[in-house]
């Protein structure tokens, strides 16, 4: 799989989609408290890359022609692998898991 998660914004998008299906505007609203400036030029191209790599599919069309995105099985595996990679980079998270 050639897709890489290059920004924290993209990681947040993946984590939000892991919670369940969402449309682009909902993703942007949920991202705003975590990332100062979120624009359509950041969110929709990444969703397009996810679709191209068959990691996300359009689950249904919501009201007003809104596409609702959800992770595919491949997408769920990609998110798990990506999260594991981030845990490996953060030794603090390893210690916290051992204590739990």
How would the blueprint of this fold be written?
Layout: H1 8-19, E1 22-23, H2 24-31, H3 40-52, E2 56-61, E3 67-71, H4 73-89, H5 91-99
Helix pairs in contact: 1-4, 2-3
State the distance separating the first and last CA atoms. Answer: 33 Å
Helix percentage range:
55-70%
Give the overall average pLDDT: 85
> Which structural class is indicated by helix and strand composition?
alpha+beta
Q: Uncertain regions: pLDDT < 50 for 5+ in a row?
A: none
Q: Order of strands across the widest beta sheet? A: 1-3-2
The CATH superfamily turns out to be Winged helix-like DNA-binding domain superfamily/Winged helix DNA-binding domain
What fraction of the residues are assigned to beta strands by DSSP? 5-15%
How does CATH name the architecture? Orthogonal Bundle
Number of strands: 3
Q: Rg to the nearest angstrom? A: 14 Å
Helices and strands, in N-to-C order?
A: HEHHEEHH
Shape: globular
What CATH calls the topology is: Arc Repressor Mutant, subunit A
Number of helices: 5
What is the CATH level 1 assignment? Mainly Alpha
Major sheet attributes: 3 strands, antiparallel
How many domains comprise the coordinates?
Answer: 1
């Amino acid at each position: 799989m050639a897709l890489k998660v290059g920004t924290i914004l993209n990681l947040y998008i993946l984590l939000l989609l892991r919670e369940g299906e969402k449309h682009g505007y909902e993703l942007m609203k949920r991202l705003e408290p975590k990332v100062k400036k979120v624009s359509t030029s950041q969110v929709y191209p990444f969703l397009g890359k996810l679709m191209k790599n068959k990691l996300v599919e359009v689950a249904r069309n919501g009201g007003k022609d809104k596409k609702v995105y959800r992770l595919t099985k491949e997408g769920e595996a990609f998110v798990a692998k990506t999260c594991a990679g981030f845990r490996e980079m953060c030794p603090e998270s390893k210690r916290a898991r051992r204590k739990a």
